[in-house]
Amino acid sequence: MQEKFRKKIEDTLHSIDGIEKASPSPFFFTRLEARMNREKNTWEKIASFVARPVVALASICLVIMINAAVVFSSSDAKDATAFQNNEIATVDEYSQVSVIFYEYENTKP
0.85 cut: is pTM over it? Predict the structure, then answer.
């Protein structure tokens, strides 16, 4: 049992003998420098500003607050409209004028 365990340890230690240092492709640093020195256009500046976590979080919070304000204010307006409609209906019930347009004189014999 001990011998199997020692053999696994030795195999594990010898498995890293052929490892070499990783190196980038030949023109990697040239392309990296060119990208870093390139001037950003207006849209890239706007996108980089909006992509910041603070701006994104603030925008999400603002949208949620506006939605909450609309929901709560619309429910108050709906209650007021319903109350006003009920009030108008009761006034209309007391002042009904009975006019029927379907009673006309038949002129044909």
Answer: no
Residue listed under structure tokens 């890239």: 44
User: What confidence tens digit (pLDDT) does each residue in 45-89 have?
Assistant: 888 888 899 999 999 999 999 999 988 887 655 555 555 555 555
What is the spatial distance between Cα 28 and Cα 31, in angstroms, rounded to a whole number? Answer: 5
Q: Encode burial over 64-76: b for 16+ CB neighbours within 10 A, e otherwise.
A: eeeeeeeeeeeee
Structure token digits, residue 80: 């007021």
- Using the 8-state DSSP alphabet, how is residue 100 labeled? -
Residue 92 · residue 86 · CB < 8 Å: no
Cα torsion 65, 70, 75, 79 to 10°: value is 140
